[in-house]
Design goal:
Elements: H1 2-12, H2 14-41, H3 45-56, H4 69-98, H5 101-116, E1 122-125, H6 129-140, E2 145-149, H7 152-156, E3 164-167, H8 173-178, E4 186-189, H9 194-207, E5 212-216, H10 222-228, E6 233-235, H11 237-250, H12 252-262, E7 269-275, H13 287-290, E8 298-304, E9 312-313, E10 326-332, H14 333-343
Length: 347
């Protein structure tokens, strides 16, 4: 079924329709020429087809059979009009190849098909400066995501097998549906204007009520509005930048440590959260039983119970785990991924 849908979208693409048009003209020309010789000269189909091809190709071979006056007139018409159609079709096809339209169209269709198979992914709206940092971090974290932006040049810079892109307006419902918002786990809106981010949040929340939405805000007055329309969290880059500058001044060692966790430094140290799914084999077991407190290069900072009673910082080994509890860890990203795999907990 998906293959049929892919072929339908392929046919609807203007580049492929243009190529089919060029090929269709050539095919119709050859068949028309063969049919003309069969009707006018009463030749066999093979002889008529052979005569048509050598005439259009201007190879200069002799006539397959002697032609009468009507046949010669038809041959002249075929040469005059057929050669022009043939040159037009071949030139158009080659131009499409040289300009890269065919490659771009095929890549776009392949990407659309790959996006249709995604689930539990993240949608990034806007390849702005903030969005670029978000995309880089998602790549480091090996997350599945789709980028939406209106500027094709900005999307071309992201060209990579691990980056799926959609050119379009993220404020439009159809564009968000194309990015698979109904199947997505989260959305990050980093558009330049707060009004656009507001509209994206409003539309996204309506399309997927379970979606986790993080939005960017420039003006402080937009914070409340973004939360009111459905944003789970709002980030103000200017506000964070100001805090960072003061922190660099008064607590530089702390900033260096935070940079290391955020991946700004070369070491891949991360702060991660691991939520225990229902039915997990670790439910009911203690931290001591699972040896989490002694995992190399990983420190368990806190446990957030599912009942919302608040973070338990530096939890003891006797702490038993329950379904939907969340573990907050600091450590090497590879080590945390290994721990996640060993415990069967989804990041």
């Amino acid at each position: 079924m998906k293959r049929i849908e892919f072929l339908i979208r392929l046919w609807q693409h203007p580049i492929y329709r243009k190529i089919l048009w060029f090929n269709g003209l050539l095919f119709a020309l050859v068949l028309g020429g063969a049919a003309g010789y069969m009707l006018l000269e009463h030749w066999s189909f093979f002889d008529s087809l052979y005569m048509t091809i050598i005439t259009l190709a201007t190879i200069g071979y002799g006539e397959t059979h002697p032609l009468d006056t009507v046949g010669k007139i038809f041959t002249m018409i075929l040469i005059l009009f057929g050669s022009g159609i043939m040159v037009y079709s071949v030139t158009g096809f080659i131009t499409s190849l040289l300009e890269g339209d065919l490659r771009k169209a095929l890549r776009k269709m392949t990407m659309e098909r790959a996006i249709s198979d995604l689930s539990d992914h993240i949608i990034v709206c806007g390849n702005s400066q903030t969005g670029q940092y978000a995309i880089a971090e998602l790549l480091k974290a090996r997350q599945k995501f789709v980028v939406i932006d209106m500027d094709p040049l900005r999307l071309e810079k992201l060209e990579s097998p691990n980056v799926y892109c959609i050119q379009g307006d993220a404020t439009h419902e159809d564009t968000l549906r194309q990015a698979g918002i109904e199947r997505a786990a989260g959305l990050i809106s980093t558009l330049h204007h707060d009004a656009d981010n507001l509209f994206v949040v409003l539309t996204a929340r309506d399309l997927n009520p379970k979606l986790r939405i993080i939005a960017k805000a420039v003006e402080e007055s937009s914070l409340k509005k973004l939360r009111q329309v459905g944003a789970d969290s709002v980030v103000m880059p200017n506000f964070i930048g100001g805090l960072r500058m003061v922190s660099e001044m008064v607590r530089p060692s702390v900033v260096t440590f935070l940079d290391m966790m955020l991946g700004v430094a070369e070491r891949s140290v991360r702060v991660e959260e691991l939520q225990i799914p229902s039915g997990s084999p670790v439910i009911g077991k203690t931290l001591g039983d699972l040896h989490i407190l002694h995992e190399p290069d990983v420190s368990l900072v806190a446990v957030l119970p599912a009942n919302g009673s608040g973070h338990r910082f530096n939890p003891p080994a006797q702490t038993a785990l329950a379904a939907l509890d969340t573990l907050i860890l600091i450590g090497d990203a590879e080590r945390i991924a290994s721990l996640n795999k060993r415990l069967g907990i989804r990041v």
